[in-house]
Every structure is written in C-alpha cells, then in structure tokens.
Amino acid sequence: MHVVVCMMEAKELAALSGQCTRNVRARVDNKADNALLRSVPAENLASSGASLIVVRDSLVERWKYQIEAHVSQKALRSFIDETTEDLPSNFELAAYDVVVTSFSRLAKAWKLHRPASELEKRMPERYGFEDTQRYTDGTTRGEVSSLLTVHWVRVIVDEGHKLGGQTPTNLMRMARTLFAERRWVMTGTPTPNTLQSADLRFMHGLLVFLRNKPYGQPDGRAWTKAIAWPFEKNEPIGPYSLQSLLRRIMMRHTKQSIRDILPEPIR
Question: Which residues form the Helicase ATP-binding domain (predicted)?
Fold first, then answer.
C-alpha cells in the first residue's frame, strides 16, 4: 500500500482537522545553523497570500498539469517556474495564488543569491575586486533571490524527504531560510528505513525545516534528549514521545483515500 505522508506545523494540522486556531510565523532563535542566521530585513519582504510549492525538477510539468486539471481557467493565479530564466520580482511573485518551482532553482539560488551572513556584511573587499561583493567562499554574491524576499503564506515541499538528515545541502539551507507562515513536507518515504539512529537523524532534519518547537532546533539538543536517546536505549518514553509528536504534525493518506476526497474543480 502506498502511503502519502504530510507533515506540517501542529497549528496548521489542527486547522485542517476542523479546530479553530491562529497560525503564527515561527521564529528560530538558535544560532547553531548558519543558514538561519542569514535574514532579509522585514521592510524588504513582500507580503503575500501565495503558496510556494517546491518539487523535483521532473515534476514541475506534472504540477502544472494537475493545476490545469483541477482548477478552472483563471480561477487561480499560478506561476510555473519551468525555465532557467531569472525569476520575476518578489512583488510580482507575491501577486500569484500559487508559485511552483524546482529543487534545482532553490539549490542554485542558495549558492548565488543567498542573503549575506553578518561576517560577509562586515568584511572588507578582501579579494581585490572593486565594486564586487563576494561570499566568504569566493563566490560572487548576486542579488538576493526573490523567493527569499516574499513572506509566503505557505511553503509546500513535495518529496520533502529530500530535506531530511543532518548534513545540510544548498536545497536544505534555502528551504529552511524561506519566510512562511506555514510549512508542509509531503512524502511517501518520511525516513529511509535504514538504521534506527539514521532514521532518527533524518526525521530531525525534517523538523528543522518545519521549525517545530522544541524538537526542530538546529542543535538537536531537545530532540536528542527527549526522543533519540530514550528511543535508542529502548526506553518506553522514546517511542511514546515520538508518536505523540507525529500525531500533532502528521497526516497519512493512501492514494485511494486521496482520490476519494478530491473536490470538484475550483471555479
């Protein structure tokens, strides 16, 4: 049986379950993850009601087809990022209802268009180039990606297991830095089902993206103390705590159950 798992902030899951709740943008105060130290000034953010959907490159066209199949023409303003050209400005992106982009776009944006760290902001022109800004690794620093200067209402990562693990990739760093009220991870394989310890580390990576408190803190101390260590020592509190957490943030559906609940096209 193929199962689709959707993980999200607990407050969003409560809202989807019919409980009235108020969604609040999560803040990450921990300074262990360099990606989360890079920020865009609030005055540079374009407020938006749009959902940003991040998918594997080969699935961009499929998402385009699904939107066309389930939404009547002109009922939804959508932008499909299906080229390698520069993205529209943040204010243009903010005007859409849905923006679909790819893993490779996010990875490249982090490499060339990420916000500068505090060190990079303070450092002099140490590379001998006038009027050229560079990151500490020597890469020329471009204008910050418009994806990072929109305050999205929701970020959804399809095949979101790509964000798992504790070795950050450019995709993971970029996804973690996006500004959003709500965050979703959609996947059929939330963990690689290898060693128990590896699966636990993988799960923690997803929680960092979701900005779950306290278990999604980048340093992993709360996660390790409350769940990982007890779990690996076969203490009952470990599995109990993990199950309690997953009940608050996860929905599970089979393919058939999703077919049964698909609504009529939006008109």
Answer: 41-208
